[in-house]
Amino acid sequence: MSSNKVLISDKAAGKELELPVVKGTEGEPTLDIKKLASTLGYFTYDPGFAATAACSSNITFIDGGKGILRYRGYPIEQLAERSTFVEVAYLLVNGELPTENELNTFRDELTYHTMVHEKIYSFISGFHYDAHPMAMMAGVVGSLAAFYHDKMDISDPEQRQMAAKRMIAKMPTIAAACYRHHMGWPMIYPQNKLRFTERFLHMMFSVPSENYEVSEVAARALDLLFILHADHEQNASTSTVRLVGSSGANPYACVSAGISALWGPAHGGANEAVLNMLNQIGDVKEVPRYIEKAKDRNDPFRLMGFGHRVYKNYDPRATIIRAACYEVLDELGKDDPMMDLAMELERIALEDEYFIEKKLYPNVDFYSGIIYKALGIPVSMFTVMFAIARTVGWVAQWLEQSETPTKIGRPRQVYNGPTERKYRALHRRG
Are 388 and 171 in contact (CB under 8 A)? Predict the structure, then answer.
């Protein structure tokens, strides 16, 4: 808490209030408005909470103007280049990068918890064959509370840590099972001899009739995407997890709520929207026409995967994943007209003055969608991939909130409905 204060004066009421300035280690100063309502009788109006800090956190820092993203103080560029997803998961959950022994122990713990109860597979098999994988994920993850009800005392630090590790370990297993149900394939159990992303790809794509060799390029690209998507400060799904968690709800219910929020096309569904947009364009020859449509304010067409609400100049994750995108396409030898279309769209957008002036650069969703398609992951699974990675951020945020006494979330509103009116009997209406 800073010693600085900002004076607010209500001249009509003849009242004044000094609001304390809250300043973190980085980022904009924030006004503490807790006494605003009791002293001056006002609440604040901030649709979308774009100008409101709902919590204090030590996990992720973003500076959208400068294109900065850091996990626990470490630049995302360094983590993407030198680290692994499991190491980043340890960092986000525990606050520090692990020693070699700590990393090995953490990796072993995650590996130990990759299995799910056999009844989970029965639960998944009860969904309709063409159910959306995100719908299945939300239901199955929420149901975990029924399987681990004896270890859900959130006041116990050990049980909180156990729940966090279970969520990180089991999410890929559940995701792969949902995909295989959707495809009508038999379930594949996790192979603990494999690394995190290798194990997931094996559960996704292996079949009993032949050996499945996991591509090292694919596994590394997926690991990189998981690192980039692990956390992103107080976005819609993370704030949902925190809001549900503020009620004292179990961690599985909190993460299930986060999955549901992530499913929205304005949030986690953005990379799916990129592929749908490419399908709409259809052909490389059509790219210039659709570029012009995107420039026309009166045209409903929008380029998906360009620009970002938070990053005003460029998305630092996009810069990292762009190189990986080209590596995956080269190594896997994918000859896909859709890929050619995407690359042409990228080229024109990066050279066009309109997009340069408005800083509409390709974001992480643009490249991640292309990579997922190259890896053979269907569009319906794109948001599920996001959820696997973001689970780490969700449980880290939930743990942080659980360790700090927090009031239950209770946003206010501006009411615009009818004022008080008298009830009229049914026979006297109209």
Answer: yes
